[in-house]
């Protein structure tokens, strides 16, 4: 029996999604070709073959993270799921798997690392003030 397709994103798939999210406006997903995605990755120092990027885009379409928006070549793709949606889902999964569902343990672990910059620490303090 075939193994079911993973719904989670691999590291490479996440790289592709970041290109779409970074090139999109806040409310309007940007349509990109595979070549544009590959070029963006190359400019960021990540060289992948065109066929590799095309395969990753196809997989992301199958997983319903991207959709094809036209029928003629070059094909255009755009993000279906926002960064906020995907990162929230991935973070929730990580909190469940690593910290047994405890957000408190996650926050304590972050603070124990002491690698937060002053801006990050300020933002956390602001959020904590809002919650009290």
UniProtKB/TrEMBL annotation:
Gene of this entry: blaI_5
Pfam families noted in UniProt: Penicillinase_R
Name the record gives this protein: Penicillinase repressor
Keywords, comma-separated and alphabetical: DNA-binding, Transcription, Transcription regulation
Keyword match Transcription regulation: yes
Domain of life: Bacteria
Family designation: Belongs to the BlaI transcriptional regulatory family.
Alphabetical list of InterPro entries matching this protein: BlaI_family (IPR005650), WH-like_DNA-bd_sf (IPR036388), WH_DNA-bd_sf (IPR036390)
């Amino acid at each position: 029996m075939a193994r079911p397709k993973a719904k989670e994103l691999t590291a490479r798939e996440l790289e592709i999604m970041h290109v779409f999210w970074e090139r999109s406006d806040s409310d309007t997903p940007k349509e990109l070709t595979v070549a544009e995605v590959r070029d963006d990755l190359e400019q960021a120092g990540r060289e992948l073959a065109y066929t590799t990027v095309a395969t990753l885009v196809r997989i992301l379409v199958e997983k319903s993270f991207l959709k094809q928006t036209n029928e003629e070549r070059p094909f255009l793709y755009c993000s279906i799921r926002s960064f906020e949606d995907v990162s929230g889902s991935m973070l929730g999964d990580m909190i469940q798997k690593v910290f047994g569902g405890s957000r408190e343990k996650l926050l304590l672990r972050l603070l124990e690392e002491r690698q937060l910059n002053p801006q990050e620490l300020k933002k956390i303090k602001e959020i904590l003030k809002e919650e009290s």
